Amino acid sequence: MTLDDEPMALAAEQLRTAGMRVTAPRMAMLMVVSESRGHLDAETLRERAQRITGRLSLQATYNVLRALTDSGLVRCTQFPGHPARYETERHDNHHHFVCRGCGAIRDVKCSVGAAPCMEPQLPEGYDTQEAAVTFWGMCPDCRAAPRT
Ligand SMILES: [Zn+2]
Ligand SMILES: [Zn+2]
Predict the structure, then answer these.
(1) Which ligand is nearest to the CA of 36?
(2) pLDDT tens across 82-110, in order?
(3) Which single residue of 7, 49, 108, 130 could bond 28 by disulfide (Cβ 3.0 to 4.6 Å)?
(4) What CATH architecture does domain 6-86 belong to?
(5) What pLDDT, in 10s, does the model give residues 115-134?
(6) CATH assignment of 92-144, among 1.10.20.10, 3.40.50.1110, 3.30.1330.60, 3.30.1490.190
């Protein structure tokens, strides 16, 4: 591992900008999350990060992911019946489509406009910071090949 690797330097820069201490596991995790462009679970991310940093315990993996999520660099989404998924936080408030057949997750652009569900009817004192919508259904592959 050399620090002048470009993705590594970028990850270090992102950590510094977020006010975080730069550590090898954090850099590695940030790199694998941004390289994946998908929605990976902690176990998969751990496997990939280990190729960069060497052994990472599952606990260390969760600690790193939590720190990255808390700092706003990584977005964590929990879908019922699935392990938590992680992706780069792009602050675009996008939603997700989850296939009930194969579990594939696809990003769905935030529906723009004054949808009533985006302005929750809540008593005074609640500060809404995020709205997450999950669409459930079947992806084209699963529709083409019905489950037996
Ligand atoms: Zn599917
Ligand atoms: Zn997403």
Answers:
(1) 2
(2) 999 999 998 888 889 999 999 999 999 87
(3) 49
(4) Orthogonal Bundle (1.10)
(5) 556 667 889 998 877 777 89
(6) 3.30.1490.190
